[in-house]
Amino acid sequence: MTMMLGWRAKIGQIRPATAIEGAEEWRSVQVPGVAYADARTIVPRVDKDGLQVMMSQVLEASRQLETSKVDLIVQCGAPGTFLEGPDADDRVTRQILEAVGIPAITMHASTVKGLQVVGAKTVALATIYTEDVNQVLAENLEYHGIRVTSIEGLEMTDPYQASLHDIDSAYRLGRAAYRKSGGADATLISCGTYRTFGMLRYLEMDTGAPVITSNQATLWNAFRTLGLPDQIPDLGALWSAA
Fold it and tell me: Which of 181, 206, 194, 197 is nearest to 238 (CA)?
């Protein structure tokens, strides 16, 4: 008898078509019984107009994932919701549920939840985004009670650019943001294409503070939403906290 892939859970992920890095980071963890199905959206630019184009494709991507009979749909691409205001995450997940009958979470809401779980009231923010996008993200975090004490951004507007950076880039950016923060409670590294899994425990060790990243927190939230209690210490304090 052949064992079905995803015998514990099947997670559907909607990701930008420009990159495979985030999806492959998830698969690299190789948790027994968990499988992933992918759907893609086109993102012209990492700015408000480009991300609106991306979000206009989310429901069609959800319909693709529905055919794979996934247990959960994950909207990846945090700026797609935080640029639309603090209510956007709930609106998007509700629309997905109404369209295909499958529960959904978003990347941005997952990072906020991760910061809350590790008890962060202040955060050092490191992203690939431009200054204007970072300011909106900081305002969104502060709406959720998390004060941003420093920001380091790579000023990218081409969504493919982030795929050219490896974990050393994320480590350096996160550490620079933390050094400027005056001892923030945590570091947030935002971008689902930006690879972070291989350096998480080292950045936490070297800064003495929890690190939350887009891929790490969203995978954690997907597991916990599905009732999976796996703890993966290499993915940082968050994966051992709850």
Answer: 197
pTM of the model: 0.95
pLDDT tens-place string over residues 77-100: 999 999 999 999 999 999 999 999
Distances (CA, A) of 119 to 91, 116, 151, 162, 205: 26, 5, 19, 29, 17
How is 151-174 classified by DSSP, letter by letter? EEE----STTGGGG--HHHHHHHH
- What strand order describes the sheet that includes 186-190? 147-153, 122-127, 186-190, 211-213
Residue ranges of alpha helices (H) inside 159-213 are 167-180, 200-207
CB 174 within 8 A of CB 205: no
| Cβ contacts of 149 within 8 Å, gap of 6 or more | 122, 123, 124, 180, 181, 182, 184
